Amino acid sequence: MFQTAFKYYKAKTPPPSFGEVIPIGSNHPKLESVPLPHADAKSFTGLLPPSEWKVYELSGHPGLLVVLNPFTPTAQRYWMVRCLADYPSHPNTTNQIGARQLIEDVGCSWWELLQTIRSPVEQRKFAKSLRWVTLGYQYDWTRKVYDEARREAFPSDLGTMVRYVAAVLGYDRFSPEAAIVNYYPIGATLAGHTDHSEDDQTAPLFSFSFGQPAVFLIGGTSREERPDAILLRSGDIVVMSGASRLCYHAVPRVCTDVELPAVLGTSAARWQGEDAALPRDDVLWSDVEQYIQYSRININVRQVLKANQQTLQRSGCASAS
Ligand SMILES: O=C(O)CCC(=O)C(=O)O
Ligand SMILES: [Fe+2]
């Protein structure tokens, strides 16, 4: 059932109908509003006051929470810039092995390397080939484990923001220790999987989406269960907690607004406006904006260790899925 839905939403011809895709923030019968445990929390720069957040639980998927974009446009740009200009830098690992060595040898960032490519065609090709960066505990994709020997500092701004969001949602003890930043050029997909490499599989996953919209499939603990499809747009947050923490999920489609019902408006409205401040003055917003017009970025944050656990248990650890 999961694979059938994945193939349906991935298909180019014929393209899928979005009729059954649940838009966050709508009056959809499957979106149950949940009251915030800490709606009175004091505000945090770049986020709306929690009393204004719209938080839902997806019916049939207990623990699967979605927060309608609580970010200001300036904060959206801030996180996009961090994901492009800062995070793909040494010592973080990226999928671009060749570039990774160059970045380490030359001591530049991925973004700086991108700017040195003069041919627009080659530049876009290089930009589109960035698919992931790991933060904090670096993930070993081959062995499907985190590596105690490669525990890097978790970016403090991201850690602070995630801890705040977690606390507002009632997860005061959540500790951000690893993140996978996923980069999806339009048309890219992420196949069905569960995330079970963490020693603590009870702590929720926090997933932040920026840029172009995506269809996100959430199923059950087996691939036989029929998934639901939700539409994630820039700034939306997904929390996989409780019974949904170990459920199958996938991203079968990253698209542009043109493919979506017009009532949803334009994604760019979520990151345009306010002052044009950027976290770094060596980054041109127009370059970031160009990238984000054909891409989605997802920051997927995990707690790896159990409460009071100091280091990874080398023996345990997860097998592939
Ligand atoms: O891109 C997404 O929304 C999901 C990413 C994901 O599931 C993962 O990184 O494990
Ligand atoms: Fe995942």
Ligands in the structure? 2-oxoglutaric acid, fe (ii) ion
Low-confidence runs: 315-321
Query: What oligomeric assembly is this protein in?
Result: single chain
Largest sheet: 10 strands, antiparallel
Overall spatial form: globular
Task: Give the averaged pLDDT, no decimals.
Answer: 92
Percent strand equals 15-25%
Tell me the number of strands.
Answer: 15
Q: Counting H and I runs of at least 4 residues, what is the number of helices? A: 7
Distance between termini? 17 Å
Give Rg in angstroms.
19 Å
List the helices and strands and how they pair.
Blueprint: H1 2-10, E1 22-23, E2 31-33, E3 55-58, E4 64-67, H2 73-86, E5 93-94, H3 97-106, H4 110-115, H5 120-128, E6 132-140, E7 145-151, H6 156-168, E8 178-185, E9 190-193, E10 205-211, E11 214-218, E12 228-232, E13 237-240, E14 249-254, H7 285-292, E15 295-302
The protein binds 2-oxoglutaric acid and fe (ii) ion (FE2).
List the keywords.
ten-stranded antiparallel β-sheet; five-stranded mixed β-sheet; globular; binds 2-oxoglutaric acid; binds fe (ii) ion; Oxoglu/Fe-dep_dioxygenase_dom; broad specificity oxidative DNA demethylase activity; Fe2OG dioxygenase domain-containing protein; Alkb; iron
Short description:
The protein is built from 7 helices and 15 strands.
